[in-house]
Design a protein that fits this description.
The complex is a heterodimer of chains A (250) and B (278). Chain A is an alpha/beta fold. In chain A, 36% of the residues lie in helices and 24% in strands. Chain A contains ten helices and ten strands. Chain A has a six-stranded mixed β-sheet with strand order 6-7-8-3-9-10, sandwiched between helices. In chain A, strands 2-1-4-5 form a four-stranded antiparallel β-sheet, covered by helices on one side. The termini of chain A are far apart. In chain A, 40% of the residues are buried. With 278 residues, chain B is mainly α. The radius of gyration of chain B is 28 Å and the shape is flat. The chains are: A alpha/beta (250), B mainly alpha (278).
């Protein structure tokens, strides 16, 4: 079944400004680990941000889990965002808070303002958080502050936070480009493993083509806002890659 | 045999029980802190307001309102006498800020850890200047300068200049300390002198921040200069003082309105300048 269907999506940052995305259509299935590749400025991040409406699309339709994302009113938009975990390039942790509080922040969409004020998360959330921290290998770091961690460790916290939401899909915005090659591969492996285990489909922005080919089963190639390639990883080859990245040389 | 399984005992695994208990304790502690703070506020109110106010002289609510009401009205006859003091107030603020900025140049240079010429001596001197400047009220500075140079606008200008040094120099020095060292390295690598480093690598980085601070201080100085006349340092404050002494409450209100107008003008101008610069 399809968790996410995007059809004829257009986006621009201002009414008069240039279009960042032009007529994008694709479908993410329940068991997909989907890669979006393309040169810098192709619109990869914009595409990801349209899906949970951090960027407002200007035209087109996004159907997530049977809901029409582009038409949702504010309150329902927040409910939608609860169902989509996001892992960021720069981790976006709350630096001055502990690892545990960062992970628990993944539950804020389910927590009342009053509970948030007293940081009174229910026991099952704390259990879940500990379990996830154990899985990402950070159980020893529960009480550490987020800014005491290394890059790889921070992204592990980011993964745990996203999974805390019990998401129906994960959006990954260049999850490894702030990390060195060895750690990058570890992090991608961890995400893939957790996603497979918890049966969460992923949509991943990634500029490292090799990683994309290694971990993803489907690929979209963006160039200057256009979809240049859309298909299973096996159909991608050097020629098509050169075509997608042709603009970067100019 | 049992030694091999002792790892768990040495570092007990963290559980949700431990975390929940810790959070409960920390909330309890927070509650106590707020309780103590609340008690302090109540106690302060008791001592400073309830016991220390001359309730009998204040009279009933109606009498209080009547006293306040005396101020509402404008003394039109005062208008012609306000123009020159208003301009004078404005001028005191401008000249005071300008003089303050000039004093700030060495103060900020000496007071920034990364560029101070001889740290054990120049750094403490600059920091001392800033602290003294800020810890003495502008009225006290004005009293001091009135005593030194006599009545008029000049002691007002000196008072504002000296009072401004603390803030402008401190913010500028901190801006210098926070600069990105990259450009400094680059200019040093091309063989630049210390003065060239200052001009090319440091000033361009701190310029917007420093200008912002100066404009902000200038705006505050307009406010300050409006009251300096209370102690004989010229401007609107002197007029205010005279109206108050002769119980001409409508005149007082007129002066307040003039001060208000001047401050609004100052804010508009500073907003414009800041927008065009940053």
């Amino acid at each position: 079944m399809a968790i996410l269907e995007i059809s004829n999506l257009h986006a621009s940052y201002s009414v008069t400004g240039p279009e960042i995305l032009k007529d994008i259509s694709f479908t993410v299935e329940d068991d997909d680990f989907f890669a979006i590749i393309g040169p810098s400025g192709a619109g990869k991040s914009t595409l990801i941000r349209c899906i949970n409406r951090l960027v407002e699309p200007s035209k087109g339709e996004i159907i997530f889990d049977g809901r029409n994302v582009t038409k949702l009113p504010k309150r329902e938009l927040r409910t939608l965002r609860r169902d989509i975990g996001v892992i960021f390039q720069e981790f976006n942790l709350i630096e001055r808070m502990s690892v545990m509080d960062n992970v628990l922040s993944g539950r804020l969409g389910y927590t009342s303002n009053l509970r948030t004020l007293f940081r009174a998360f229910p026991r099952k959330d704390i259990d879940h958080g500990l379990q996830l921290l154990d899985r990402v290998g950070l159980i020893e770091f529960v009480d550490k502050r987020a800014d005491e961690l290394s890059g790889g460790q921070r992204q592990r916290v980011g993964i745990a936070r996203a999974l805390m939401q019990n998401p129906k899909m994960l959006l990954l915005d260049e999850p490894t480009s702030a990390l060195d090659p060895k750690i990058s591969r570890e992090i991608m492996g961890l995400i893939k493993q957790m996603a497979t285990e918890l049966k969460v489909p992923c949509l991943c922005n990634i500029h490292d083509v090799q990683l994309a080919m290694e971990f993803c089963n489907k690929i979209i190639g963006l160039q200057d806002g256009y979809m240049k390639f859309y298909g299973p990883t096996e159909e991608m080859n050097k020629e098509k890659l050169d075509d997608i990245y042709a603009m970067e040389v100019l | 045999m049992s030694d091999m399984h002792d790892d768990d005992a040495i570092a007990p695994r963290i559980t949700s029980d431990i975390i929940l208990e810790r959070r409960r304790k920390s909330r309890y502690f927070q509650g106590c802190v707020y309780l103590v703070l609340g008690a302090l506020v109540v106690w302060s109110i008791q001592v400073t307001i309830i016991e220390d106010t001359d309730w009998e002289r204040m009279g009933s609510v109606a009498q209080v309102l009547e006293s306040a009401n005396r101020f509402f009205g404008i003394d039109y006859a005062l208008f012609k006498d306000l123009l020159v003091p208003t301009i004078e107030t404005f001028m005191i603020a401008c000249l005071g800020t300008l003089l303050g900025v000039i004093i700030c140049i060495p103060a900020a240079w000496f007071g920034a850890k990364n560029i101070t010429p001889f740290k054990p001596i120049t750094y403490p001197i600059a920091r001392m200047m800033m602290t003294i400047s800020r810890s003495i009220h502008e009225i006290v500075w004005a009293l001091f300068f009135v005593a030194v140079v006599g009545l008029g606008a000049l002691p007002g200008i000196f008072a504002l200049a000296v009072r401004s040094v603390g803030f402008i120099a401190k913010m500028s020095a901190e801006a210098i300390e926070d600069i990105d060292p990259g450009p400094v390295e680059a200019i040093r690598s091309v063989g630049g002198s210390n003065f060239q480093i200052l001009l090319y690598a440091i000033l361009p980085q701190i310029w917007p921040q420093v200008i912002g601070v100066i404009i902000f201080e200038w705006e505050i100085n307009i406010r300050r200069s409006a009251i300096l006349g209370l102690v004989g340092a010229g401007g609107l404050g002197l007029v205010f003082f005279r109206q108050m002494n002769t119980f001409n409450y409508h005149g007082v209100m007129t002066v307040i309105i003039a001060v208000f107008g001047l401050i609004v003008i100052g804010e508009v101008v500073s907003h414009r300048i800041r927008r065009s610069l940053i």
